[in-house]
Amino acid sequence: xxxxxxxLQWQLLDHALTKHHQTELWICQLHCAVPRIAGNKWLKLKYxxxxxxxxxxTGILSFGGAFSNHLLALAAAGxxxxxxxxxxxxxxxxxxxNPTLRQCQELGMQLHFVSPALYKTKTxxxxxxxxxxxxxxxxxxxxxxxxxxxxxxVAELPLAVTPAGKADLLCCASASGGTIAGLITGxxxxxxxxxxxxxDASLPQKIMALLPAxxxxxxxxxxxxxxxxxxxxxxxxxxxxxxxxSLQHIYTEPVYTGKAIHTLLQMLENGxxxxxxxxxFFHTGGLxxxxxxxxxxxxxxxxxxxxxxxxxxxxx
Length: 316
Ligand SMILES: Cc1ncc(COP(=O)(O)O)c(C=O)c1O
Prior knowledge:
Helix content is 37%, strand content 21%. It is of the alpha/beta class and 316 residues long.
């Protein structure tokens, strides 16, 4: 049954590299009735929201960094559906000017700040037990919203069905692994490529742990993004790709989606995707992060306007 809460928008990328390599690169955007839950966020949250009732809870507690797309989406979902939200934030102290956390609070999310060292223990049973005791009325959802419930939601996305026919490669940016695990689970006969935007050597194992035992492991792979920047940072070429995409009204940020598309184009250029003719790329959202990049002066005002489609002048 179609999900009335979202709509898919498909765009075929017009790019010299895709033309040269006779490859179609389809970008699939998921627009949500509540815009802050766009991209992969709604798919990862929907079954968690169902679980609140099943587990007799009144809200969701989850984890994220100070500019977390996931926490903001959760806060927006809480406000829309009427459940409480609590964000455990990796940050020493509250910063009232942080645009992501300010919006989280405006949407009613309660914030709990923990030091980066303590945050590292977020998946350890002791920390989780402690939090569950402290907040018994909340359902605990892991960082990035990644869990079996998230995989189930993402698996419902009909990403292989492009307007031109069936894709032979599905692609997305990967961080906590829930999105790619959902794409693999929902598309058992299609190859899936995740572009890892984090430096996490354990990511393949984390993804494997989310997959059904019957999964054909040869059909999916993870590739590192090709700049040597740490998570959250990016190079001028990645930003340039994002600016070029915006000219086709494909709005991206350079930390997840823009970085992944940039890597995909590099792989195409290097002949690493020669066998694939029709690629479907899942645009996982995250545009709210652009405000945080501007706030930290990682992009300037004009970049921000162009990347969000609010510019009247175009600079490349
Ligand atoms: C915009 C965006 N794209 C991609 C991802 C990566 O998804 P996942 O954590 O499920 O691998 C995230 C993180 O959740 C994200 O916020």
